[in-house]
Amino acid sequence: MLQHFNFKPLFENTSIPGWAISFYYKQQRYSAEYMKDGKILWIGEAPAAKADIEKMVHELMLYHVYD
Hints:
Layout: E1 3-9, E2 19-25, E3 28-34, E4 40-43, H1 50-64
Antiparallel strand pairs: 1-2, 2-3, 3-4
């Protein structure tokens, strides 16, 4: 489960898609950029369970941004 999930627009003009995201997973903080096509660019180390975490991130972004 992801904890303390945060996102904010990458650009001042919020009509341009792209978001900076951060969250904690198993007491480890991760940061990434979420692109408009759903691609996740990890900043620093990517999590070991990358596929599972990316699925959770996609679901959260669909709920918060695209709803």
